[in-house]
Structures are given as C-alpha cells and as structure tokens.
Amino acid sequence: MGFGVGVIGGSGYAGGELLRLLARHPSFDLALVQGNTSAGRPLGDVHPQLQSLAALQIRPIEPAELHGVDVVFLALPHGRSAAIARQLPADALVVDLGADHRLTDAAAWDTYYGGDHAGAWTYGLSELPGARTEIASSRRIANPGCYPTASVLALAPLAAAGIVDVSDVVVVAASGTSGAGRAANEHLIGSEVMGSASAYKVGGLHQHTPEMQQALSCVSESRVGISFTPVLAPMPRGILATVSCRLANDDRAAGAVLRDTMEKAYADEPFVHVLDEGKWPRTADVLASNSAHVQVAFDPATGRVTLVSAIDNLGKGAAGQAVQNANIALGLDEGAGLAVDGVAP
Asked: Does any domain span residue 124?
C-alpha cells in the first residue's frame, strides 16, 4: 500500500498536470479529487487526456472527507487555500500550489493580493541552500510560483556566492497562456494570443515580485531589489526567464568564475541542468518535465551578467515541484513519478 492522496481543485491546468503525475507515481494512491464548479462530473469529462482516471468522479470540496488521507494537494486559485487548509488534519502532509502561504511579510501580501494574511509555510524550492532539510521535517509546504522558480533558480548560486549585485536585478520572463489559469478570459482566446506577445502588470505590479525578493533574500545578505516584467507568449505552456544584474563591486575578473559557480551549485541537483557553453535554454526542451535548464553569460562592456532559464510552468513551476516536495517530505526518492527529460516535438 502506498500513501493515500487527495487533491482539492483538480479541474484547472495545474490540477490536471498534478493528477497526471499522481496517476503514474509508484508510491501514491489517489483517493479522491474535490472541486467546486466541476463537482459531480467524471474526471474524464474535465481532463479527457487522463484516461486512467476517467471514471473517477469529482466530489464537492469537503475537508472532512480528507481525514485519514496521508497527503493533500491544494490546487486552488490564490486566496482560496488558507480557509480549507485550516480544516485539514495536522498530521497530514499538505502542499499548497497557490500563493496563500508563500509570503512571510503580511504587508507584502496585503499589497499584492489583499485580504487576511494566512501566515507562511515552509517554502518548497528544494534547490535553495538548506531547503531540503526544512521540507523533510515539514507537514505544511508552500509550493513556489512559476516565475519565481525560473528566476530564482537562475540567480541564486551567484547571489549566494556574493558575485553579483542583487540590489538591481531585472527580470523579463515570458510565460505560456496556461499560467493564467483555465477560466475563460477574452485576452486569452486564440484569436487574441496567436501571433502576438504582450507584457502585462508592468512596473512592479505582478504578485510574484515580493516572492522573488523573499527567496533571494534567503541566500544573500544584501538588500534585494527586483524589477520584474512578465510577458504573455503565444504558447500553451513554458517559461523563459531572462535575469540581468551587475557584478558585485564591478569586479570584472569575477566574470570568469560565473559558470564554474553555477556548475558547482547544481552538480548534484537531479532537475537543474547548466547547459554547455553556447547552448541556450528553450521552453520546448523542458516540456512535460520537472527540469530547469539554465545558462549564464557575461558582458564585459557593461559589467552585466545575464542568466537565462527555462521551465515548464505546469511542471517544475507547479505540479512537478509539488510532487517533488511531497517526495522529500515523505522520505521517498525525490524524483519518483517525475521526468527529467522533456518531450518533442
């Protein structure tokens, strides 16, 4: 017998990807799926791609039904998880794919999300220094956002080594349309998206900005300042993040150690891959995987460092990372049920 698993909010894109991963996980037994507007429907009607789970009926959201379940994944819109999480048994492992428990700063939550701050859980970016130890001892884990995952994985090793100046970081990241969720929106219909890329929430307005600052502050003693511009790209899934910053103390000689620092930091990481020189991350190469591809370059004329990373926003940016965190917390093989390799074409 494996671990009994419940999913609350299984009808969205992240929820669907999560269910796909759980269906093939060697140690997880999916006990039930709960949803709101999708309650009462067979899972196959909502996610036709999940034929192995097609007959499973989505039940209404009722936390009491999850007592006795070992693991609960919350795949709900931001602001919906906290009230439900408070009703779940204390001994159950709960992984929240939403933002409700990521931020430690109540003022930042109020500014970017609004409403009551639910408090912070263990932040589940396992590749950060010391994170695995915290995750392994936790029963409440906040799964990181997709944009912060891509951006922080790119910059964290150099920030931790003090090689770069984190006070003036510029992030421009393009995401596929699935990052906006499954709800019908006019600006996401095919005729609006195809053949067009557009920036949104420009000027420090995106809710993932304080999360990036918080995560990088965990590895750097310096003040972190981030200017983040998200871009909607005409593709269903994937994130390509470009991160730019200056060398610390304008030490041009430090440029030579950038790649070495990145390679050493991720040498033993199963899902983060520093690409060979001259090769650049592409969203197509990480599709349907839990991998992050990263690359670094230095411009001696300006003294700026550029890092590029690619992840699948529904994989390492959401469902894959949630499963990875659950694996760590339960003492399982960290890669159980997860793919290092992407799919092509």
From this structure: yes
Decide if 340 is inside a domain: no
- CATH number of the domain residue 271 falls in: 3.30.360.10
The 8-class DSSP code of residue 52 comes to: G
Tens of each residue's pLDDT in the chain, 345 residues: 699 999 999 999 999 999 999 999 999 999 999 998 899 999 999 999 999 999 999 999 999 999 999 999 999 999 999 999 999 999 999 999 999 999 999 999 999 999 999 999 999 999 999 999 999 999 999 999 999 999 999 999 999 999 999 999 999 999 998 876 666 566 666 667 778 899 999 999 999 999 999 999 999 988 999 999 999 999 999 999 999 999 998 777 677 799 999 999 999 999 999 999 999 999 999 999 999 999 999 998 888 999 999 999 999 999 999 999 999 999 999 999 999 999 998
Q: Which of 56, 75, 128, 146 is catalytic?
A: 146
Contact (CB, 8 A) for 192 and 262: no
Distances (CA, A) of 68 to 5, 72, 106, 231: 10, 10, 32, 42
Catalytic residue at 146?
yes
What are the residues whose beta carbons fall under 8 Å from the beta carbon of 133, sequence distance 6 or more?
none
239 plus 287 within the same structural domain: yes
Q: Which residue blocks in the chain are alpha helix, DSSP H?
A: 13-23, 43-46, 81-85, 106-112, 131-136, 146-160, 190-193, 209-217, 258-265, 320-329
In sign, the C-alpha dihedral spanning 230, 209, 118, 89 is: positive
Range of the domain at 237: 147-313
Task: Please indicate, yes or no, whether residues 53 and 75 belong to a single structural domain of this protein.
Answer: yes
In this structure, are 161 and 306 located in the same domain?
yes
Are residues 62 and 187 located together in one domain of the fold?
A: no
Q: How many domains does the chain have?
A: 2
CA gap 200, 198 in Å, rounded: 7
Predicted TM-score of the model (pTM): 0.95
Same domain, 219 and 286: yes
